[in-house]
Design a protein that fits this description.
Layout: H1 2-5, H2 13-53, H3 65-76, H4 80-83, H5 91-97, H6 101-106, E1 113-114, E2 121-122, H7 129-132, H8 139-149, H9 161-179, E3 188-195, E4 198-202, H10 204-218, H11 220-229, H12 232-238
Antiparallel strand pairs: 1-2, 3-4
Helix pairs in contact: 2-10, 2-12, 8-10, 9-10, 10-11
């Protein structure tokens, strides 16, 4: 409880408990939205890759060793009777469902190496981008929206593999944080970034905005549904009701 006690006057145990419960509820609200967003993301990518390489796209698409390892882990999580029937029509869908958020995120990084010895080669994920971009029909519109909302960052905002990777990576970091019951009181740390020797953080409001941003890129109706049904805004507002804050 030390983190929560430090946010109360005189280390008040009752108010620290209120903050702990608030943090729990906010994490649950975020996870509920992320559960919907993650399914939408993986299905959008799966559809785009299927159109290019077929339903078993993972056999044809250039993938680096990290992606192949993640797919192998997803494969091992399938029941033995499913793995033994490689011709089963539902196998690709079940394999996709076992791939984690990090796997989909890493499809947008710059890529790594695959193979051993003389067969080792570099996989350039930029070459996969024209196919992956089709998973985000609202991508260019959302980039334009972000440039209008954040003119100070306009030059860095463009519908590109790099921009999508950063967005997915930061949402995945939020997902991991709430899944591991980490405090959200000070926001969400940005991995590898520092400011005046302190880790920079996103506020929970900024994290929620990122969820809506990715949702709009995939499907505008999905973003509207999340906005109408999410419990995150209500839970965030509750923090102001805690007397010490």
């Amino acid at each position: 409880m030390a983190t929560f006690l430090s946010h109360t006057p005189h280390h008040c145990a009752d108010e620290a408990l209120e903050l702990y419960v608030w943090n729990r509820d906010l994490s649950m609200a975020f996870m509920a939205d992320l559960a919907v967003l993650e399914v939408a993301l993986r299905e959008a990518i799966h559809t785009a890759l299927t159109e290019k390489w077929g339903v078993q796209w993972y056999q044809e698409m250039p993938l680096d060793d990290r992606a192949r390892t993640a797919l192998a882990s997803a494969w091992e999580r399938l029941p033995a009777h499913v793995r033994s029937n490689s011709e089963s029509g539902d196998l690709p869908g079940r394999l996709v469902a076992n791939c984690m958020f990090g796997f989909w995120t890493n499809l947008f990084d710059k890529g790594g190496y695959t193979g051993q010895g003389p067969w080792r080669r570099k996989v350039d994920n930029e070459r996969n981008w024209p196919v992956l971009a089709k998973a985000f029909p609202g991508g260019r519109r959302e980039a334009a929206r972000q440039r209008e909302e954040h003119p100070e960052k306009a030059r860095a905002i463009t519908f590109s593999r790099v921009w999508v990777h950063q967005l997915c990576q930061e949402i995945n970091e939020l997902r991991n944080r709430v899944a591991h019951h980490e405090p959200l009181l000070n926001g969400v740390p940005l991995r590898g970034q520092t400011h005046r020797n302190e880790k920079r953080r996103r506020t929970v409001e900024e994290a929620f905005a990122q969820i809506l941003s990715l949702a709009r890129m995939i499907d505008a109706d999905l973003a509207t549904w999340l906005m109408d049904n999410s419990e995150v805004p209500g839970v965030m507002a509750r923090k102001c009701e805690i007397a010490s804050l």
